[in-house]
Amino acid sequence: MAAKIITLTTDFGTGSPYVAEMKASVLSINRDAVVVDITHAIRPQDVRQAALVLETVTPRFPTGTIHLGVIDPGVGSDRALVCARIADHDYVVPDNGLLSLVTRRCPPQQVVKLQDTNYWNPSVANTFHGRDIMAPVAAHLSRGVPPSLLGPPHAQLVDLPWPEPERRGDLILGTVLHIDTFGNLITNLQQSDLQNMDPAAWEVSCCGQTCRAWVACYAEAAPQTLVALFGSSNRLEIAVTNGNAAQQLEAHDGDAVHLRPRGSPT
Amino acid sequence: MAAKIITLTTDFGTGSPYVAEMKASVLSINRDAVVVDITHAIRPQDVRQAALVLETVTPRFPTGTIHLGVIDPGVGSDRALVCARIADHDYVVPDNGLLSLVTRRCPPQQVVKLQDTNYWNPSVANTFHGRDIMAPVAAHLSRGVPPSLLGPPHAQLVDLPWPEPERRGDLILGTVLHIDTFGNLITNLQQSDLQNMDPAAWEVSCCGQTCRAWVACYAEAAPQTLVALFGSSNRLEIAVTNGNAAQQLEAHDGDAVHLRPRGSPT
Amino acid sequence: MAAKIITLTTDFGTGSPYVAEMKASVLSINRDAVVVDITHAIRPQDVRQAALVLETVTPRFPTGTIHLGVIDPGVGSDRALVCARIADHDYVVPDNGLLSLVTRRCPPQQVVKLQDTNYWNPSVANTFHGRDIMAPVAAHLSRGVPPSLLGPPHAQLVDLPWPEPERRGDLILGTVLHIDTFGNLITNLQQSDLQNMDPAAWEVSCCGQTCRAWVACYAEAAPQTLVALFGSSNRLEIAVTNGNAAQQLEAHDGDAVHLRPRGSPT
C-alpha cells in the first residue's frame, strides 16, 4: 500500500513549534505517513481564510489524502470535531465552517463525529485538540482505520455564509476574498459569472482604480501595470505586473470589486 | 528497522537556506531519515528560548528520535559539541545550556563529546558546525552508529540558571518564560506550585492587569476576556480569548506574574 | 533504487499555500519523492537572489537530486522552461538567469527545453507553470524519465551579469551580494581574490565603517565587534559578533566593500 499523505493547515504561525507537536503525534502512530504543510500562516482564528485555502489546495492532492485543519478557536468547548469524507479525501477538522467551501464543490460522502477515545492521545489537553485528538485520528486513518470506527454519524456540517457575486443593473459586483503573498487580490468571481461574455468586454475596478488591461499572464503587460486576469485557481485576480496590487490599491479582504461593461458611463 | 526521525531546532530564521544545507548533510548520509522541523524561529543566539522549546516539544516524539539543536553563538570556539542520550532520545547540540530544561525532567543516560572526525563532513567550516559536524553526526546516529563511537564521555553539561517560582508571604511570584504565536503568555508556574489549592482560589495578574477568570479552555470566556489557564504544556498561561494577551498587556519574556489569594487585600 | 530528492526554491513567501500546490503535483506522480524546501523567502521576482541561493545550497545535496527553482516573473510569456543537468544534478527552472552562478562553477552537461506536454499536468494555468509544468516534470525525472524525453536541446541559457571583484590601485573593491537572516553581509569576494596575501594584511570596510578584526569564527571577538571572516560558503562576510551587521551599518545588497592594505593612507 502506498504511504498515505497527511496535510496540515493551521493558524499556529510559521515557525511555531506547536506544528511539530502535531507531527510528533502523527509520527508516533504512523512513521510512514508523508506529512505535508499546506500553511500555518492563517490569521489567528480566521476560519474563512482557511476555508478558502482548503478549497483551493486540497483537491490537488491524490485521492485518499487526509487533511488536518486546525483553526479551532472553540477548542475545549462543545463544538464537534469531525472526520468528513469529501471527493475521496478525508478532512479532520473542528465543525466550525472550515469545510464551507470544500462542500460547495462536492457534498460530503460521510461525516462522523470524533468520539472513540481509543484513537486519541492517552492524555488530552483542553487547549490543544489538534495535537491530542485530530492528529492521532489522522494517523489512524492513514493506517487504514475506517471513519465509521471513529464515532457516530454527524448530521450537519456548519456552513458559513459566503459573499456571492451580485448583479446590479449593468454591473457585476464581487468581493476580494484573499490577498496572496505577491499582493494579488483573489476575488469571488469566476469565468462563469461573466455571462458568457468575453472578459475583455468588462472593465474591472477596485478601491477606486481601474485595471488597465485584461491579460492571460502577468508578464503580458508592462511592469507596474494594474491588470485583471483569471488566476491559477480560476478566480478573477487583480494584480500589478512585477508589483504589489494590495499595496498600490491599499486593498483588503472584503473590498468590493466592480465589473462594468466597457464603454458604459461611469 | 523503522526509519529514524531527526528533528531540527535552530535560530537560522524561517526561510533561511542554511536549514536546507543541514538537511543536505543529513540526506547525503541517510536518505531514509524522516526530517522534521521543530522551529527555526528561535531569536538569534537565544539559547534559553530554544531550551524551553526542546523541553516542551521533543519528549512528544517517539523514543529513538534524534534532536538537532543548533543555536550556537560559540561556533568555532572551544565550546564542546555533544551527543546526550536523555529518556531514550538523542540530542546533538553545542554544550551551552540548550539542554538545561530537558535534563531537569530527566538526567542524561550518556553524554559524549563529538570528537571522531570520521562522522563529520570531510571539510568543516569554522562558522557552521550545524551543517558540517552536528547534522552528519545525527545522520550517522540514525543509521545505527552508537554514541560511544562519536567521542569520549563528556563529564558535565552546562546548566543555565532558570527563574524559579517564589513564595513571598501570601503571594506566589512567577515569570513569563515565553510568548507564543497567539500572544499567550507561557509562565514558569505549574499546577504543583499552587500548594494543592484550587486554581480558582488564586487571582492572577501580570503587567498591572488581573485575569477576569480561570478557564479550562479559551472559549469558556467571552471574546477579549483576559483569562488564566493551564495550557497544553501544563504551564500556567495568561491569554485573551480570541485576542492577543501579549499585545494587550504589552508583556514580554521575563515579566513577573503574581498569584494572590482571592479576596486578599491588594 | 534510492528515493530521489526534489528541492524547492521559490519566491512564493514563507507560509504561502502555493508551495503545497507544487508538492501536490509532485506527490500525485511520485509519492516516494523526498521533497525538501530550500527557501520560499526569495524576494518577489528577485532572480539574482535565488541564483545565489541555488549556487550556495544545491551542490551540497547528493548527485541525482532534482532542483526546482520557481522565480518566474515571465510565467506564461515566451520565456523558455528548461531542464539543465549540471554536475549530475538536474535543475528545472525558467530560463531567466536563475542558473547564472551555478553554471559558473560548472558548465551544463545537457539542457533541454520543456516541451512534451505528456510530462505536464493535464490542465496548465497561464500563471502557475511551477505547479503545472515544472513540478510534474521534476516528479517524472525522479521516476527515471531521462531529460531527453522532455523536449529538444536548448542552445543557450540566459546568463545574468554579475558584479566581479575589481582592482583599483592598491584597493580591492567588492560588493555585498546578500544579507543573511543573522544580518551578516555576504560578499562576492573569495580567498582567491586576496592575491595570495594573508587576509590580516587587508583592512575591510563597508558603509563607512571598518572591521575591527579578521576572525576565524564569530565568537573569536568580543560581543558587538564588527569583524570580517570567510564564512560557510567560502565568501568574505562582514558580521557583528552576537549582533546584526546589516542593521548596525544600515547595509544593503549591492553596497560596496573596500579592502585596503593595512597601514596604507586612507
Contiguous uncertain segments of 5+ residues of chain A: none
Count the beta strands of chain A. 15
| Largest interface, C-beta within 8 A | A-B, 32 and 34 residues
Name the beta content range of chain A. 25-35%
Listing every helix as H and every strand as E from the N terminus to the C terminus, the arrangement of chain A reads EHEHEEEHEHEEEEEEEEHE
In which range does the helix fraction of chain A lie? 10-25%
Oligomeric category: homotrimer
Quick summary:
3 copies of one chain form a homotrimer. Chain A has 266 residues and is an alpha+beta fold.
Could you list some keywords that capture this structure?
homotrimer, 266 residues, alpha+beta, 9-stranded mixed β-sheet, 6-stranded mixed β-sheet, 17% helix, 29% strand
Can you tell me about this structure?
- 3 copies of one chain form a homotrimer.
- Chain A is of the alpha+beta class and 266 residues long.
- In chain A, 17% of the residues lie in helices and 29% in strands.
- Chain A has 5 helices and 15 strands.
- In chain A, strands 7, 8, 9, 10, 11, 12, 13, 14 and 15 form a 9-stranded mixed sheet that branches. A 6-stranded mixed sheet of chain A has the order 2-1-3-5-4-6, sandwiched between helices.
- In chain A, a hairpin with a 2-residue loop joins strand 7 and strand 8.
- In chain A, helix 1 packs parallel to helix 4.
- The radius of gyration of chain A is 21 Å and the shape is elongated.
- The termini of chain A are far apart.
- The mean pLDDT of chain A is 95.
- Chains in contact: A-B, A-C, B-C.
- The interface between A and B is medium-sized, with 32 and 34 residues.
